[in-house]
Amino acid sequence: xxxxxxxxxxxxxxxxxxxxxxxxxxxxxxxxxxxxxxxxxxxxxxxxxxxxxxxxxxxxxxxxxxxxxxxxxxxxxxxxxxxxxxxxxxxxxxxxxxxxxxxxxxxxxxxxxxxxxxxxxxxxxxxxxxxxxxxxxxxxxxxxxxxxxxxxxxxxxxxxxxxxxxxxxxxxxxxxxxxxxxxxxxxxxxxxxxxxxxxxxxxxxxxxxxxxxxxxxxxxxxxxxxxxxxxxxxxxxxxxxxxxxxxxxxxxxxxxxxxxxxxxxxxxxxxxxxxx
Amino acid sequence: xxxxxxxxxxxxxxxxxxxxxxxxxxxxxxxxxxxxxxxxxxxxxxxxxxxxxxxxxxxxxxxxxxxxxxxxxxxxxxxxxxxxxxxxxxxxxxxxxxxxxxxxxxxxxxxxxxxxxxxxxxxxxxxxxxxxxxxxxxxxxxxxxxxxxxxxxxxxxxxxxxxxxxxxxxxxxxxxxxxxxxxxxxxxxxxxxxxxxxxxxxxxxxxxxxxxxxxxxxxxxxxxxxxxxxxxxxxxxxxxxxxxxxxxxxxxxxxxxxxxxxxxxxxxxxxxxxxxxxxxxxxxxxxxxxxxxxxxxxxxxxxxxxxxxxxxxxxxxxxxxxxxxxxxxxxxxxxxxxxxxxxxxxxxxxxxxxxxxxxxxxxxxxxxxxxxxxxxxxxxxxxxxxxxxxxxxxxxxxxxxxxxxxxxxxxxxxxxxxxxxxxxxxxxxxxxxxxxxx
Lengths: 276, 438
Ligand code: SF4
What we know:
The structure holds 2 protein chains of 2 kinds. By secondary structure, chain A is α/β, with parallel strands linked by helices. Chain A is 46% helix and 15% strand. In chain A, the strands form 3 sheets. A 5-stranded mixed sheet of chain A has the order 6-7-8-9-10, with helices on one face. A 3-stranded parallel sheet of chain A has the order 4-2-5, covered by helices on one side. In chain A, a hairpin with a 2-residue loop joins strand 6 and strand 7. In chain A, helix 3 runs antiparallel to helix 4 and helix 5 runs parallel beside helix 6. By secondary structure, chain B is α/β, with parallel strands linked by helices. Chain B folds into 2 domains: 216 residues, no CATH class; 97 residues, no CATH class. Chain B has 19 helices and 10 strands. In chain B, strands 3-4-5-6-7-8 form a 6-stranded parallel sheet. Chains A and B meet through helix 5, helix 6, helix 7, helix 8 and helix 9 of A and helix 1, strand 1, strand 2, helix 2 and helix 12 of B.
């Protein structure tokens, strides 16, 4: 849109920071060659300009999106920023160029390379978010519960409302190991905060027992004659398995009920009375 | 018997009920209770057979006073029996739900003592969940044919979805395999549920806080392949049920032999998964694509062609309706093009507003052209270089890849050029001139 400069922009990796890159580009009527967040260790090859995050400038860009394009475009930009599309910063900058030129019509330009790439990235994020509505697994530690996830996109804000509504009375945490962030919830309060590291404690006896019951259920519900590993892996990709108790330690292949009963009985004999 | 063994027995005997969706109800959480419901439904895991696990699907008991030939739980089958108490069901549901293992409960049961007694047990479990544990997640419950109307009505006020399984698609098949049941005894509770739902929706207009009766509607299931019923019979019944009883979903279950019986396919018969898949596709065409059963099948060709999906079969037999111009065709017409689904059609409508579309643009929209290319033009022109010879057309339309993905065992045995199936395809010469002008 503008003349391309030989510069890259470097910003602090925040959404506001990126909006300031957009501001900078319009102010100098220049298009950078690339935009890097300072944490990603890229851009060493290019000379780069540091873009300071300034909430006044960011606010001006942000407010103009629903006004000059449409409210849906604002949502698309936010979600696009959370996606893990390669070069998402340049993608968003190019999308905003198009949007500020064509107005609300840009949302219909599905055949345009930039618009279609951004839509794809957002779809992927949404799909991953939807997957996690089902694939989050809490462990119960007395009065609190905690889950670990390893998503590709930054989906905590996408799933936040769902879990906080569903578990209104619970105190829980969902820890996003990939992005070092955690969603914390207590009745009446919720927040997403940075959390660099967290190791889940060992499950207590009751927790371990319910995990085993869940595994027992999982193995009993499949129909042997219909076994289809490929279909399962396409609907529940392997990268999710690590955090799913039912898939841990190479689950047995639909064991015959009778063969397991003895083993199970032995395992459950001690200390399981509250479950019987 | 310990909890694990009970759970395994009562899950294994519930697994042939294929419905596991948690869709159709929307309810936000509430302070003091656990759970909510999301209308699109959520899968929490996928079993080794690739089916979605959304609900804790168990039987209250697998003991039964009836003797349906196709059922593992039938009275005369010597199998281990177990039963949950309402307390056990409620506790397990809460514990699994809290850990986000499940979206809710799917509760069914063999018939204990009588249909009324069985229904009372189901009510006891659901009342405990809803009123004592304050559970607001999803509940699907089986309506037991033959139970008293008053009991069924109480059950419906506790559940999101109810279902009565038809299981066998015709009266003759029922007579043969389920002598304790009749079409009448199955349709009666269905009718009751329908009228309760209608009544409830007018109550809701009057009093906003009227309790909801099965807000996610009712569904049913049919077994495919245990009896000689044709796809045409099944699809007609399907269409009738959607219209007459306002069902939300009909599920098809490829018959998996579980008991030896002279009236049934032998124990080593493979479940007809491909046939089941075709029925689901056709069901989809009825519900979302504006097709009618009689357009898809008839007395002369009463079964689906395993090599072609139902929409392709239809399109090949209705060549006069193609090609369709992408930039002008209305939504309903776009939906009839093989390879164009609801999502693609919607994208085309949206993108058309921003400018006219060519084949390159369609690809950008994510429209898969493999099948569609034979049936469309863009700005009056067919895809450049498109050859419509007998082989390209058939190879592109036949669902080889799709079938491979499903790893259907019977596909390997199916020769792709088996005469009887090829006969159902158009003649080579007509295929070559197919899509006039293309
Ligand atoms: S009534 Fe139900 S559980 Fe009992 S034998 Fe028939 S199908 Fe099985």
